Amino acid sequence: MAVVASHQLARSITAHSWNATLTMIAVCPNNSEVHIYKGTPAPDSVWEKVFVLKKHDQLVSGIDWAPISDYIVTCSHDRNSYVWSFDGAQWQPTLVILRLNRAAISVDWSPKENKFVVGSGAKSVCVCFYEAENNWWVSKIIRKKHNSTVTGVAWHPNNLLIATTSTDCKCRVFSAYIKGVDSKINPGTAFADTKFGEQIIQLDLANGWSFGVRWSPSGNSLAYVGHDSSLHIVSDIGPTPSHQTINLRHLPLREILFLSETRLVGGGFDCNPMLFEIDPKRGVWTFAKFIDEAKSSTHDLKSSTLFLEAMGRFHGQTRRGSHEIFETSRASGLAHDNCITCIVPLISEGEVTGQEPGEKVVQAFSTSGVDGRLVIWSFSNITELLAKIQI
User: Fold this and answer.
1) What is the rounded CA–CA span in Å between residue 269 and residue 252?
2) What residue ranges carry the coiled-coil annotation (predicted)?
3) What distance in Å separates the CA atoms of residue 386 and residue 48, rounded to the nearest whole number?
4) Which pLDDT value is given to residue 331?
5) Residue 168, burial from CB neighbour count under 10 angstroms (0-12, 13-18, 19+)
6) Long-range interactions of 304-312: CB distance < 8 A, separation 24+
7) How many Å apart are CA 334 and CA 329, to the nearest integer?
8) Which of 347, 358, 359 is nearest to 385 (CA)?
9) Which of helix, strand or coil describes residue 365?
């Protein structure tokens, strides 16, 4: 794994998303605008700002660029969401009727791109779809299921289920089937008899705010993180799921991404992406390594230790005469020097040694965060990977 490129785009980045051909990227520079750059993940690519989307009047908190329709969806603390379409010259916004009285926090297109979901500070989730008769996007709302802000949303690959995380420390899975929008479900399909908004499962595994929920490529597993420095992987979603909790000896994660069914990467307050893998001998998830290989200086380690000792005291882990200190990777020379808040997959390849036959494996991804940097990471030669993309 290597850092391919790093771009300082703003003082801070809230969210980012790429188009399907990886030739343009939409970025929110921690304000009410979305900046679109022309450029690629290649190390020698020169980035040029070509569009600025101005419609929101408060912080844009989420961006997702649909790979097939080429629509961009944004959500904001102004309680609104817009779907942007390109008319050949400019990006034109269409207002989405969310009916929220609090900020919109997160957004995600469904796999078939006929719906998207918005998490909000109103303790509710909006599942949005297009009404051709009225030429607008409307929403159906899942209410009274969350006790606090919905921090993350993610679609299952089947286009019918959504997973959410919340500051009530829980992760939940709901049915998002909408009659007239989704095709009729085969009776043999799992959860075929569930109605819109029905809660499939509630996971109460974290002891802190929950973030960064993601499904594995097959949809057989989901993972999310807790602000108590924990990572939770859950399989066999249903009445009797199996789960594993990894209590990290590091600062909390904020975002995760499945690279395959057996590997995932997480990023957060350590400023250094962390790789997790399934131990083939024991069949359990374990922390493998930090991806950024920068070396720590004595000064950096001393500063981090002092900070983490205070953190340990806050968690009640310091005892009279002795104390336990969390480990940290924070060091000078890292690609990021502040919290990583967004991880986006770039390129997936076919069969790879050690994986199931035919399984797609993410070979490159990008991260952004509070430091305003957008960093490209790749397990393989990025130039060769980009050459394989059909444009």
Assistant:
1) 6
2) none
3) 19
4) 52
5) middle
6) 304/328, 304/330, 308/251, 311/251
7) 9
8) 347
9) strand
The better pLDDT of the pair 323, 203 is held by 203
**What is the DSSP annotation of 71-140?**
-EEEEETTS-EEEEEE-SSSEEEEEE----SS-EEEEEE-TTSSEEEEEETTS-EEEEEEETTTTEEEEE
Q: Both tokens of residue 363?
A: 């070979």
Q: What is the pLDDT of residue 232?
A: 97
Per-residue burial over 277-286, b = 16 or more CB atoms within 10 Å of its CB, e = otherwise = bbeeeeeebe
Q: Position 204: which residue type? A: D
Given strand 2-8, what is the order of strands in its sheet? 2-8, 373-378, 361-369, 340-349
Q: Can you spell out the DSSP letters for 220-267?
A: SEEEEEETTTEEEEEES-SSS-EEEEEE-SSSPEEEEEESSSSEEEEE
Residue range 258-266: average pLDDT? 96
What do you get for the CA distance between the two ends of the chain, in Å?
26
Q: How many residues does the chain have?
A: 391
Distance of alpha carbon 263 from alpha carbon 249, whole angstroms: 19
Residue 381 banded pLDDT, cuts 50, 70, 90:
confident
pLDDT at 186: 66
User: What distance in Å separates the CA atoms of residue 368 and residue 266, rounded to the nearest whole number?
Assistant: 12
Taking CA atoms, 354 is separated from 261, 267, 322, 334, in Å, by 11, 24, 43, 29
User: What are φ and ψ of residue 173, in 5° steps?
Assistant: -125, 130
Closest of 74, 71, 114, 225 to residue 163, by C-alpha: 225
Percent of the chain past pLDDT 70, that is, above it, reads: 84
pLDDT in tens, 64-94: 999 999 999 999 999 999 999 999 999 999 9
Compute the average pLDDT of residues 90-118.
96
Q: 155, 161 in Cβ contact below 8 A?
A: yes
